[in-house]
Amino acid sequence: MSLLSDIIQDAVKDVYASKYASLAASVIIVYDHLITLDNEFDLIWKSSWSIGKGLFIINRYYSLASVIANNYALFGTALTNSGCLRYYHWQGWTGLIACMIAETILQMRLYALYFLNKRILYLMVGSFILTSASAATIMSIAINQFQAETHLLPGLPCVALHVPSYFYSFWIPILAFETLLCILALIRGFRAHTESGYPVRSDSGKRLVSLLIRDSVCYYVVMFATYLTCLLVWVVNLD
């Protein structure tokens, strides 16, 4: 009985740690929205419409909507079992859509850094299609096995049950694709330091390209580390 009590106490501690970690992340996202609203208005809303602008707005405000929904599910008390299950279905597909939007933006950035190289474009788009199809297939199969229960543990109004042990594999194709993008960014950065010049003539243009490459390499490395962390967390938790 004592062993069972210890297991329940540990589970409740993990629940509260997850809830408040999610709340902390939500505060950071909302704070970032608030402190960048002026730049967003000047640089995004005043600019002409384009694919990049549309993807930025979707990515920015869809993420904000996800934050609100996640905290409602974690801290609310009005969810039913069916509503809880629908939430996990929505959360799963939201994660995939958010990744696809982010990866599309990253591809556009790399395409520009390679100065509209068609071979790079075909490589990225072909890999992206395979990645999206693989991740969507894994998500569709796994999420249909989910069950959900409300108030199963104290402090957690919505709990996912019967999560397949292979669910971590959802992150494998995404991580593989991010590895490709990271390698392409590193190659571009290496070439920038070894080549005698850029396909731009002005000094300001060269400095801009150098900054974009530097920031892109850092950004892709961070994204790679983020997806790898997600994969490892799922592997450890489902082990």
Provide a quick synopsis of the model:
By secondary structure, this protein is an all-alpha fold. The chain has helices at 2-35, 37-45, 51-75, 81-113, 118-143, 171-194, 203-238; strands at 147-149, 159-161.
What does this structure look like?
Residues 20-64 form the DUF6533 domain. InterPro entries: DUF6533. The protein has 239 residues and is an all-alpha fold. The chain has one domain (2-238): Rhopdopsin 7-helix transmembrane proteins. The protein has seven helices and two strands, in the order H-H-H-H-H-E-E-H-H. The protein has helices at 2-35, 37-45, 51-75, 81-113, 118-143, 171-194, 203-238; strands at 147-149, 159-161. A two-stranded antiparallel sheet has the order 1-2. It is globular and about 65 Å long.
CATH-level-2 architecture = Up-down Bundle
- Report mean pLDDT, rounded to a whole number: 80
* Secondary structure: number of strands: 2
SSE series: HHHHHEEHH
CATH classification, class level: Mainly Alpha
Instruction: Tell me the major beta sheet.
Output: 2 strands, antiparallel
Roughly how much helix do the residues carry, as a percent range?
over 70%
Assess the beta-strand content as a share of residues.
under 5%
Strand order of the largest sheet: 1-2
Distance between the termini: 24 Å
| Count of all domains | 1
The whole-angstrom Rg is 21 Å
Question: Which structural class fits the helix and strand makeup?
Answer: mainly alpha
CATH topology: Rhopdopsin 7-helix transmembrane proteins
The stretches of 5 or more residues where confidence is low (pLDDT under 50) are none
| Quaternary structure annotation | single chain
Q: What overall geometry do the principal axes of the alpha carbons give?
A: globular
Total DSSP helices: 7
